[in-house]
Amino acid sequence: MNIGSTLYSKAMTAVAGNRAVKRLTLRYGRKLASRFVASDHLQGALREVAALNRLGISATLDALGEGIGSTDEALAYRDEYLKLLDAIADSGVRANVSLKPTQMGLAIDAGACFRNIRDIVARARQYGNFVRLDMENSPFTQATIDMTLRLYREGLTNAGTVLQAYLKRTEGDARDLMDAGVSLRLVKGAYREPAAIAFQHKAEIVASFKSIIQLHLDRGVYTAVASHDDAIVSWVKAYTSKNGIPKEKFEFQMLYGLRMSEQARLAKEGYRVRCYVPYGTMWYPYYTRRLAEKPGNLWLVAKNLLR
Ligand code: FDA
């Protein structure tokens, strides 16, 4: 991250937290968010996934929601995910699911959160499907890793989590989780974290990212690289080709609405590509993280508003 983009990202995160901005954004509603959110509802999202599948792109579906306020709300999200897994099986689309631990109640009742997630992973297993526990901000890192390991201990190995390259602890976590056979998505990291625990500069984050990707590829475990960064994508292509790592051993993941033509191009070149497809009405926090990541995304949204 250079100083300009760090300042931009901090400013955006601060602006996103502002109540007036939030009210204004919510007033313009789905139109603003439609750049990054596939649909308000499950059936619409499934139609988008079917279209992606026709381009050779798989998906991971995310029923938007996070930081909920009650265990009843968490139960409603659990039910939405059970419905989602049934609908994926019924429709035959190529998609797994991603969920947020705080959406399942991690911040209010860790035991109930684990039970909700376990129900979802167990349902996915009936269909031979997979559940990714997204990684949120650092107060939840250890608990998310612990829940994933517990699922594995209970025989539910059709789950996995995410490691964020910006966290200084990540290389150690990567080794431990690989030893336990846990499936991981590797990302740079999307939240603001303090310098005591997280790299702040782009060069350090990229170096850490490459190092954990390489660790995975060298071990021969399936590697999911989630990034829109051309430098990372090209590096992975060159590294795997130079080391004779087959395309079946790794996948690229990108977000819905970002670099869609690049996603299609990679799929056409024979790479595995998975698109993260969010749907639902609780889009505000997801959407503001996307704006904070890249100044250009503000223009994409503005164009959408004027359309
Ligand atoms: P970054 O934003 O660093 O941009 C680097 C460069 O990429 C840009 O300078 C530009 O060259 C190029 N680029 C990026 N976007 C482009 C565009 N639209 N058009 C053209 N060029 C572009 N985070 C987290 O903390 N927990 C999680 O669970 C997840 N999950 C997740 C899933 C998936 C599928 C993805 C893709 C990402 C996440 N993330 C995440 C988010 C992640 O941590 C990170 O914040 C974003 O991916 C942004 O970092 P990038 O590496 O994509 O590029």
From TrEMBL:
Cofactor note: Binds 1 FAD per subunit.
Annotated metabolic or biological route of this protein: Amino-acid degradation; L-proline degradation into L-glutamate; L-glutamate from L-proline: step 1/2
A biological-process GO annotation: L-proline catabolic process to L-glutamate
Broad enzyme group: oxidoreductase
Keyword line: FAD, Flavoprotein, Nucleotide-binding, Oxidoreductase, Proline metabolism
Catalysed conversion reaction: L-proline + a quinone = (S)-1-pyrroline-5-carboxylate + a quinol + H(+)
EC number: 1.5.5.2
Annotated Proline dehydrogenase domain residues: 45-294
One protein family per Pfam: Pro_dh
Keyword Oxidoreductase: yes
Annotated InterPro entries: FAD-linked_oxidoreductase-like (IPR029041), PRODH_bac_arc (IPR008219), Proline_DH_dom (IPR002872), Proline_oxidase (IPR015659)
Top-rank taxon: Bacteria
Keyword Oxidoreductase included in the entry's annotation: yes
Binding residues for substrate: 100, 289-290
Example of a GO MF term: nucleotide binding
Cofactors: FAD
Binding site residues for FAD: 135, 164, 188-190, 202, 227-228
PANTHER family named among the record's database cross-references: PROLINE DEHYDROGENASE 1, MITOCHONDRIAL, PROLINE OXIDASE
Protein name from the UniProt record: proline dehydrogenase
Species this protein is from: Cohnella ginsengisoli
